[in-house]
């Protein structure tokens, strides 16, 4: 090989090594820049308002619970929390919006059991799935009360079960929305007791109350805050409360366990969630602040006024609950043959 050829070959190798070194240097520089930018972004969080999507109407219990907690978070983090109701499709519209949001800590979601039950009902047509989210902090659960029309001749859950067995599908049960906690709580009770009633669908709980009080619908599960005044006025008869202890506001109503159906207990929890890839550091900060907020006197008073049983829980505890809940409702939905409309 000639000297010129050797020199040219060596120069080519030198140029190739330079290009490879430049590419590696550029790639590592970009990675370092991105990591530094993300770290700075995380460190500055929150530097702008935080959006909280509520998948149910404004003025409803979920909306009011979210505002009670977020008002305190805004003070603690010195940043505005903008609560945005995005109702529709049994909570699916709001959930899909939150699932698709940038996981940067500036979008949160006011979660209820519907975030996992709706995908189970919709199957392959679901617009979101539970794995699109991660828990941030549990807030509480509003106990539901098993109620009947005063015209129905029963005064206990056992008497209701006996009547329903004598008259299969002849009694009506109010359903405030497919896959809502009220609906699935009823289905859990029916699964345990092996009774059947005819579902009467409503857009929400407020719309079903007139038919319950008038006797056109015989049985239903109603959030304590909504049921309480009607029970006190004698317009509804309470048979049991789905809670681990009696309500201080309605101490004469037995718990579901005291009524003889402990395995029918369910608590329709509320909690703040985030898109699944939201950074751990931000989730940890939010989780800690939520637990602190739930010890604040004003927040506690607002939530208790809404009939919310406080069940504070960390992000990790929330994630564990979500797994347990998915197992429970997957079984109930399959056993009862419930499908999306």
Description:
With 341 residues, the chain is an alpha/beta fold. The protein has 2 domains: 50-141 and 269-336, 3-Layer(aba) Sandwich (D-Maltodextrin-Binding Protein, domain 2); 144-264, 3-Layer(aba) Sandwich (D-Maltodextrin-Binding Protein, domain 2). Helix content is 48%, strand content 17%. Strands 2-1-3-10-4-11 form a 6-stranded mixed β-sheet. Helix 2 packs across helix 9 (280-293) and helix 4 (114-122) runs parallel beside helix 11. It is elongated and about 95 Å long. The relative contact order is 0.16.
The CATH homologous superfamily of the largest domain is called Bordetella uptake gene, domain 1
Question: Major beta sheet, specifics?
Answer: 6 strands, mixed
What's the total helix number? 11
Count of discrete domains:
2
- Strand order, main sheet: write it out: 2-1-3-10-4-11
Following the backbone from N to C, one meets helices and strands in this order, namely HEHEHEHEEHEHEHEHEEHHEH
Uncertain stretches: none
Structural class: alpha/beta
* CATH top level class name of the largest domain: Alpha Beta
Q: What would you report as the Rg, rounded to the nearest angstrom? A: 27 Å
Mean pLDDT: 89
How far the N terminus sits from the C terminus, by CA atoms, comes to 80 Å
- The CATH topology name of the largest domain reads D-Maltodextrin-Binding Protein, domain 2
What's the total count of β strands?
Answer: 11
């Amino acid at each position: 090989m000639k000297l010129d050829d050797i020199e040219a070959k060596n120069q080519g190798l030198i140029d190739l090594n330079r290009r490879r070194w430049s590419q590696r240097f550029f790639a590592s520089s970009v990675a370092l820049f991105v990591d530094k930018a993300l770290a700075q972004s995380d460190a500055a969080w929150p530097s702008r308002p935080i959006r909280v999507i509520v998948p149910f109407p404004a003025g409803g219990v979920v909306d009011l619970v979210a505002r009670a907690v977020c008002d305190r978070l805004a003070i603690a983090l010195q940043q505005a929390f903008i609560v945005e109701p995005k109702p529709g499709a049994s909570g699916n519209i709001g959930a899909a919006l939150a699932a698709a949001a940038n996981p940067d800590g500036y979008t949160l979601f006011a979660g209820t059991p519907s975030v996992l039950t709706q995908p189970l009902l919709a199957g392959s047509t679901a617009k979101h799935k539970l794995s699109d989210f991660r828990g941030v902090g549990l807030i509480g659960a509003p106990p539901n009360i098993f109620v009947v029309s005063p015209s129905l001749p029963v005064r206990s859950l056992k008497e209701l079960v006996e009547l329903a067995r004598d008259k299969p599908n002849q009694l009506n049960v109010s359903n405030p929305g497919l896959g809502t906690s009220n609906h699935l709580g009823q289905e859990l009770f029916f699964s345990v007791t092996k009774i059947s009633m005819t579902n009467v669908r409503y857009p929400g709980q407020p719309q079903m109350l007139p038919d319950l009080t008038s006797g056109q619908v015989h049985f239903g599960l109603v959030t304590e805050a909504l049921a309480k005044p009607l029970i006190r006025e004698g317009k509804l008869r309470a048979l049991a409360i789905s809670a681990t202890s009696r309500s201080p506001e309605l101490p004469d109503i037995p718990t579901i366990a005291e009524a003889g159906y402990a395995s029918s207990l369910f608590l329709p929890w509320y909690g703040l969630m985030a898109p699944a890839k939201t950074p751990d550091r931000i989730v940890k900060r939010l989780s800690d602040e939520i637990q602190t907020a739930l010890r604040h006197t004003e927040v506690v008073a607002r939530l208790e006024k809404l009939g919310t049983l406080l069940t504070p829980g960390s992000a990790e505890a929330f994630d564990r609950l979500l797994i347990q809940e998915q197992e429970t409702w997957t079984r109930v939905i399959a056993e009862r043959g419930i499908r999306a409309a």
